[in-house]
Specification:
The complex is a heterodimer. Chain A is mainly α. Chain A has five helices and no strands. Classes of the chains: A mainly alpha, B mainly alpha.
């Protein structure tokens, strides 16, 4: 599980690096085309919003991998290592249960939207929509890997933050 | 039912689950328990629509500009520039910290990022000249809160996308409040200077003044482009952010401080920092379901109107409430959760959307300085290696001043709205 999570992490990094660079360039070039060449790129806004969707869900998954999402820790921090570990395991279990539910719902949603087309580029809407299930799948794998390591390693005392 | 959901929500937060996930989980649990199957199956759609907004794209772009700049040597040059001008006055370096922070704020939009950047540069420098480490850290942290007030600002971008207020107007409205905060901190330093006689640096030669000015010009291009580009209608705030990225990238190359081997980590950091915010927005959009379904805004409105129908009293209560919330909850999370609840009240009390945005954003930024959960306190105390309690003690005068400025701005709408109204005419 840990190896799988590691592989996914590298794939995610490559995807987001390409997306954020492309998004920045598209928006900057679109300004030049509109203001200086008077020939606006009609699809620039839509394309960059779709990229942002992928950045959000893939980046959110990476954020969970690195435990960089904001949480309230000042109460948990006062507990003993044993108490912390119990709360951490409990947290991961709750998250994974609900994440699986959301994952199921999002696959159903993407498959039900196969006929929709985007408004300006006329590309199928499943292309941006797929960011939700894919990001959540990756996130679930990272979380499961964290939980398994926590269960295996009794001495572990990290924090979920 | 409502009670049960609130208890569940708080329990999830307290055991340390990330706030963004708490919002999503609570929403799903609510929809399950209330057996709202249609709404439940549209949950992913609702989440997706949370990012379907061009304004939000300014968040990763301004973050990228910040990350590029950090590697691009601009911070150092801004500090050097401020230092040759005012460093030789008594307490000069303390003033330099405030001024350099104000410059940097016109490029960066996040107080946390700015506090981290500035405390690495300023605290060692001030300590070398004989300031205590506690004071140096406190002044650096305090003045970093101008970052999200002087444009660009992450908080204004988020507030604008949540409420539909113009982000350009919010940016312009932040200029005077940001300067007022800076002046407030300068007054505090002046008063302390009177008693403690702070050290001063040597006077710089004219050639050094000139040289530092030449070096800082490319860096000052960025705020110039952002403010006048938006004012002149050349581009939207989001587009100005993309242009700022291109400029910082070129400047980084000109200064020869941007290394290409650092680019991958710059890009990945930007995405992760962006996603912590945008993922929160996505979950909060889902959470909006429950808030609307349970008619929470209406309940809040009714109980507020029972208390008072005076907008001044309302604003005072909101300020007190937000300052309290800001001590335990991250500012951006608080903004995303509370704005949809408070927004319907603005029409009732006839409060300007932009003015309110400035108040709420300054208020929640002050939360970075308040224990027990002031994120800014944690960042600076770990970077500058100051004890948390000592930093809290040293920050008190500045915290007091920030609250005074907040109250002035709350009741002096013209100071906030002057520039936005000016450019509309």
């Amino acid at each position: 599980m840990e190896t799988l999570s590691g592989w996914i992490e590298s794939i995610e990094k490559v995807i987001v690096m390409v997306l954020i660079s492309a998004m920045t360039l598209i928006i900057a070039v679109a300004v030049v085309f509109r203001y200086f060449l008077h020939d606006p790129i009609f699809w620039a806004n839509e394309a960059s919003i779709f990229m942002m969707a992928w950045i959000t869900f893939i980046g959110g998954s990476l954020g969970l991998k690195y435990k960089s999402q904001a949480s309230i820790t000042f109460l948990v921090d006062r507990l003993s290592n044993r108490g912390k570990r119990i709360f951490e395991i409990l947290s991961y279990m709750i998250i994974i249960v609900f994440m699986s539910l959301l994952l199921y719902l999002s696959y159903e949603w993407v498959f039900s939207a196969t006929h929709q087309k985007s408004s300006s580029m006329r590309i199928p809407m499943w292309i941006p929509y797929l960011s939700v299930p894919v990001g959540l799948t990756f996130a679930t794998i990272h979380l499961t890997s964290h939980l398994l390591r926590l269960l295996k390693n009794k001495q572990h005392h990290g924090d979920l933050s | 039912m409502t009670m049960g959901i609130i208890v569940f929500f708080i329990a999830l937060l307290v055991i340390g689950i990330p706030i963004s996930l708490v919002l999503a989980i609570t929403s799903l649990a609510y929809l399950l328990v209330a057996d709202l199957t249609t709404l439940l199956s549209s949950a992913p759609q609702k989440m997706f629509s949370g990012i379907d907004n061009f304004g939000l794209l300014a968040i990763p772009l301004f973050m990228l500009a910040g990350e590029l700049m950090n590697g691009g040597g601009i911070t150092k040059r801004l500090v050097a520039f401020a230092k040759v001008w005012i460093g030789h006055y008594q307490g000069g370096l303390a003033y330099v910290t405030v001024i350099a922070n104000m410059f940097l704020a016109s490029i960066l939009g996040s107080a946390n990022a700015q506090a981290a950047m500035m405390s690495k540069v300023m605290v060692p420098e001030m300590e070398k000249e004989g300031y205590t480490r506690e004071f140096s850290s406190a002044i650096t942290l305090a003045s970093s809160i101008v970052a999200p007030v002087i444009p660009p600002s992450m908080l204004f971008i988020i507030y604008g996308t949540l409420t539909g207020a113009s982000i350009a107007d919010l940016f312009m409205a932040g200029i005077i409040p940001g300067i007022m905060l800076g002046i407030g901190f300068i007054i505090i330093i002046g008063m302390m200077n009177h008693k403690q006689h702070f050290p001063k640096s040597e006077k710089a030669s004219y050639s050094a003044v000139f040289k530092s000015f030449i070096q800082v010009i490319p860096a000052l291009l960025i705020p110039f482009t952002i403010i006048f580009g938006i004012l002149g209608g050349v581009f939207t705030p989001t587009e100005s952010a993309a242009i700022a990225c291109v400029i910082t990238f070129i400047i980084g190359c000109v200064y020869r401080e941007l290394k290409f081997k650092n680019l991958p980590s710059i890009l990945v950091n930007t995405v992760i920092n962006t996603a912590t915010i945008s993922f929160l927005i996505v979950s909060a959009n889902l959470f909006g379901f429950i808030i609307a379904y349970e008619q929470i805004p209406q309940l809040v409105a009714e109980s507020m109107l029972d208390l008072s129908d005076n907008p001044l009293v309302f604003l005072l209560l909101v300020n007190l409430f937000l300052l309290l919330i800001g001590t335990v909850l991250d500012g951006i999370a608080a903004l995303i959760i509370l704005v949809p609840v408070l927004m319907p009240l603005l029409a009732i009390y006839e409060i300007n959307l932009v003015h309110f945005g400035v108040i709420i954003c300054i208020n929640l930024t002050i939360g970075l300085l308040t224990p027990p959960v002031g994120t800014g306190l944690f960042i600076v105390s770990s970077i500058a290696k100051v004890k948390f309690e000592n930093l809290v003690k040293a920050i008190m005068p500045f915290l007091g001043m920030a609250i005074v400025v907040l109250l002035i701005l709350t009741y002096w709408e013209d100071a906030v709205m002057w520039i936005p109204n000016l450019y509309k005419e």
